[in-house]
Task: structure prediction
Amino acid sequence: MLVFDDNQKTDPEYNVEAEQHKSEYFQPATSLELLADDDSERFDMVTSNNESHAQDVEDNIAPGGTVISSKLQIHVPKTLTKPDGYEHREALFGIPPYGGSIAQNMYYANADLCDAQTTDTRGGYPIRAKDGDAKDGKMLPWQSPYILMVDRGGCTFVQKVRNAQRVGAVGVIIADNSCLCSAEQCTSDPGHECEEREPIMADDGSGSDISIPSFLMFKQDADEVKAEVMANHAVRIEMIWSLPSPDDRVEYDLWTTPTDVISQGFQLDFKEAAVALGNRAYFTPQMYIYDGIRSGCQGIDGENDCYNLCTNSGRYCATDPDNDLDRGISGADVVKESLRRMCIWNYYGKDDGVGEQWWDYVAEFMYRCNEEDMFMNDKCVADAMAHAGVDKAKMDQCMDDSGGITDDNQNTLMEVQLREKDKSGVVILPAMYVNRVSIRGTLEFQVVFDAICAGYASGTTPSVCEMCAHCPDQKGCITQGFCGSKKLEESVSQMHMVYAMIGLSALFFIVMYVQHRRYQSQMQAQVKGIIAEYMPLDEDQTTHDTAVSDEDGEFT
Result:
């Protein structure tokens, strides 16, 4: 859970008095509470571990060693270029071009860009020539493409970036207005105190329409850049994204739950890509569950204090999908289905990283059982397994052998998921990681496929990426085996058919002509033979007169 007020420190896995707050247990990781004040963008990350873990998440460095996936560099003027680039925070919204970069001239709006109606594209810095066509004598507008720097404060990060996108920016740099308390020779803007750490550029819940990337630049650096551009000097800045490329295989993880609506489209669509990538990519589905003991859902006597949100006497819990503890799908139902999917993956997908049966089962379950009255229906689940080619008996045995979901027993598979959740630092669902780097933007086929293809070491990119990564219809390319539409394929086939018919017709006419000539030659030979046989000409007959009598018409 993200908290939007520095003074409100809330544990994401909290427990309240069950009798008074039934519907408030385990707020989903996708829910964001927004304070409508001028400092609503001062986000704070609070986890149930410790401050160092929260800092790891902020820095895009997971405890497992994930490297920073982005870089910020200034190329012009050279005096502002740093060997390792500038420290920054990357937004958790927008769609970065993974494996690529954006290098453009930068304009400073000299505004917070909170109001789209008052955004002046003819203002800001550097100063530009007057627009001869403008009656008011204003400067020329910002020339696209450009990266726009705006001031922090006044509204959320999402609102600022959205307004910048609307006026044509291809990227946004938000200049911080507060210094880090540890930063030397840095003075916060009036009315702002120093901060222990830079904020997370979180999504306020409305950022799905944003397609451009954005960074937060630390104040001590942003002040130097602003001074340069306000002196009417050109500044060219580059935003770079990369994925760790350790070898010729990419690992990608999806954090989700069986009731997560946002990731359903991806889970239905991506099987063909997973199969096409084969052993060149290793997929791991991660089921997001809560630690009930840490959240206070297991009482002193070992009883489940969180109603039907938890299994194993309060050890493993999930949010109630419909926020109604008295009806519909319960949190315990979600935990049970999560465990079943863990077993299916371990049996059918863990070895090869593809797991066709897992993808098939998820699709069958969505089609047959994704309703509250069928979600935990044993016959429906068995039917989905049968259609997906999953051995139900083995899955039931796996669930029991791991520790089951009843009594106060540890479940080995769910304990692994809790540890993985802590290591990954995931806070918003669904979440996709490629080579341990969190992928920003919407969970769509193209976003994930592009990120995977950008994650290979140089010279090891698989053929399916070479063929389909730059194709407008990537899924169609993977399914058909070539980049192009079905209509194009059909038109090509039709043209081939036309050419074939023309060729066959020409051949037919040639054969008919040859046959006709041969037939004429044979007929001529036969006629000559008949004439030679029945009308022999003797040498003596050449002297006889043969004439027709005028009187009777007879030969004489």
